[in-house]
Amino acid sequence: MLKTDSDSEEYKYTCEPGHAEWTPMNSNLQMQSIKILENRPIPKKTTDNLVSSHEETLLLLDMCRQKKADENAKKKDMRIRELAMQQKQRQEEQRGAQQYAALSWNPKTAASTTGGI
Q: Range with the lowest mean pLDDT among 1-5, 40-44, 64-68?
């Protein structure tokens, strides 16, 4: 079926109620994205430094990783020393308690060991 001129008069581009003359402001047309082509090449100085920038970034990451590993190693050594000192103190306390507990005073043996004083 072909449209006639009378059909085109009734056709509206808007969903507004009542009769309204079409304008771009009251139409329900939606604008799509605008694509812009721009030619701004990367400067040669920047492209020459791209390889070294990756190396520098990796170097910085490696330095950070190494620093963190050194800090962790120092913390571990300090913790080991602290535990060793605690163990040493416990052993000394046990030895001290054993030495004092093992001593006794006997006048018979005292004369023989002290020279008869």
A: 1-5
